[in-house]
Amino acid sequence: MADNDDIPFNRDFPLKPGVVEQVRPGVRRVLCNNPSPFTFTGTVSYIVGQGKVAIIDPGPDDEAHAKALLDAVKGETVTHILVTHTHRDHSPNTPRIKAATGAPVYAEGPHRASRPRFESEKHNPESGADRDFRPDIEVKHGDVIEGSGFALEAVATPGHTANHLAFAWAERSINFVGDHVMGWSTSIVAPPDGSMIDYMASLEQLGQRSEQHYFSGHGPEIPEGPRYVRFLARHRRAREASILHRLGKGEADIPTMVRAIYIGLDPRLANAAGYSVLAHLEDLVARGIVSTDGDPVIGGTYRMA
Questions:
Q1: Within its chain, how far is the Cα of 25 from the centroid?
Q2: How far apart are the first and last CA of the chain?
Q3: Measured CA angle at 12 (ends 10, 14), to 5 deg
Q4: What is the rounded CA–CA span in Å between residue 15 and residue 37?
Q5: FRET partner for 293 with CA separation of 20 to 30 A, picked from 90, 91, 149, 242?
Q6: CA 37 – CA 228 distance, rounded (Å)
Q7: DSSP of 36-94, one letter per residue?
């Protein structure tokens, strides 16, 4: 099954790093120069409002990007810094922006895993988590962050990380969805940081909301967001079906499943694909459909229950 056989991906995103682009009244964006197979052309930071503004996702530990953001708001007052989640391409620049503006930082909380780590799991220092991050103000689902001319509702969207939030500007039918939904690719869900059970529930929740225009942590805007979310959910269910189809032929380890399911995969993404398969397997084991010896871990062997 090809990776994008059912999702209308859009990889047309000509924005250049450091350039300020006004995409809507009251919404500007600035791209960080940190392209990779995981970040596409780089992390997108957003500036919401005019005169008194909020900055969403200051980005990675990158002085040039911090300068570009601060230049973009010269003569304005930054009243809020919002962080969707604590991956190293989204939150580590926060201290620079806070030091320059004095604005309080709003987020769900520090980084945490979606579930306790199993005894047999090694701690993965490459998980990309920003473990130093602490918000000034912890935000819960449904909290509204009010600024001058904008009101952003926090929408808890765990799955990609346990502490992932989207910020919905209902009045403008806009949702800043972080990495939960991306127009250029599917999101990585890698246990124990991520959880497929949580991810699917969060997709369903977003799909029931009224905001149509999604602005994502990477890549272009997504029009008809709730419709796009349904494509993503269907794609994940098809991925689950592919895993079950492979296990129907006999027990298998995760690398075997990745080779069977992800045809033509960029080899640099094989490890991430393995964790995505693990996220599905965790869910399938919890539901009693698939079994494994011991905990469902990346090195395990899996069979139909």
A1: 25
A2: 23
A3: 150
A4: 17
A5: 242
A6: 22
A7: BTTTBT-PEEEEEEESEEEEE---SS-HHHHHHHHHHTTTSEEEEEE-S--BTTTSTTH
What is the C-alpha separation between 296 and 278, in angstroms, rounded? 7
d(CA 299, CA 255): 9
Q: Could you give the angle at which helices 254-261 and 270-286 cross, rounded to 10 degrees?
A: 110
Tokens (6 digits) for 5: 């056989």
% of the chain at pLDDT higher than 90: 91
**Per-residue pLDDT tens digits for 53-101:** 999 999 999 999 999 999 999 999 999 999 999 999 999 999 999 999 9
Omega of the bond prior to 192 within 30 degrees of 0, cis? yes
Question: What's the token pair of residue 85?
Answer: 């989640």
CA 223 to chain centre: 17
Give the phi and the psi of residue 195 in degrees, each rounded to 5.
Answer: -145, 125
Question: CA 57, 61, 64: angle at the middle one, nearest 5?
Answer: 90
In single-letter form, the type of residue at position 210 comes to S
Q: Six-digit token pair at 97? A: 């922006």
Which whole number is the average pLDDT over 219-243?
97
Of 214, 216, 181, the closest CA to residue 43 belongs to 216
Q: Is the pLDDT of residue 5 over 70?
A: no
Sheet holding 27-31, edge to edge: 20-24, 27-31, 44-50, 52-56, 77-82, 105-107, 137-138
